[in-house]
Design goal:
The chain is an all-alpha fold. It has eight helices and two strands.
Length: about 250
Amino acid sequence: MKHLHSVLLWSLLLVSSIFIYSCKKTAEGETSSWNSNAQQVVTLKQQYPQFATAIDQQFVDIKKLWDDAQNVSGDDAKISAMSGANAAYYASFIYTLGNMESQKTKLRDLQDKLRRLNSNQEVSYRASSSQSECSNTLSMIDMTLSRGAQTPNEAVSILQILKLSVDNTISHCNDVIAYANELERKKAQEQKDKQANTNTNTNTNTNSSTTTTTTTPSTGTSVKCAYCGTSNPPGGGTCSSCKAPL
């Protein structure tokens, strides 16, 4: 038992060490992230040339943080400085601009889901309205990005407005989808309950049938005449042969 306890303890320590090591930042990891960010800058300047000036101005400041990090002494301190430079990039408008295409993809996916909603007239109306909202937001994104920005502050302001609009539209669409799904769930439950009640009530109210006995009137026996011996049918007052009273 003691041996088993020791094995479990060492296993726990090993798993904990692996987890801590995998979560620990490294110079290699931060360098890989920086290279990816620098490549995104090049791509975004080509994709959105109207933002190129603002991107250059913003990236100069972020790159200075990275360059300064290379001169920091001590591994931990250097890694922390490198991580700070990457964090500054993720907090910049450049990173937000790079996520615009994924936001547009989300809106298009929501439009597809909304098109398939037709639970009832109310749902269809709300779905149609949300589809229009998606279309308007997509158009606004394209129009705004096509105008671009000349300074980082201008770009931040523009992208904040776009992000707010996108977030609101996504929220409205998800509300409609959730409402339609809840209606479908309730409808399915009602049908299930109705079927269960139907099965329960079938043949449960059968009354005991009353057995009716039909009595066949007795045909009686023939009446024999006391005078001539003739057999007469019952009910007759006189003999059919001699006419004597029966």
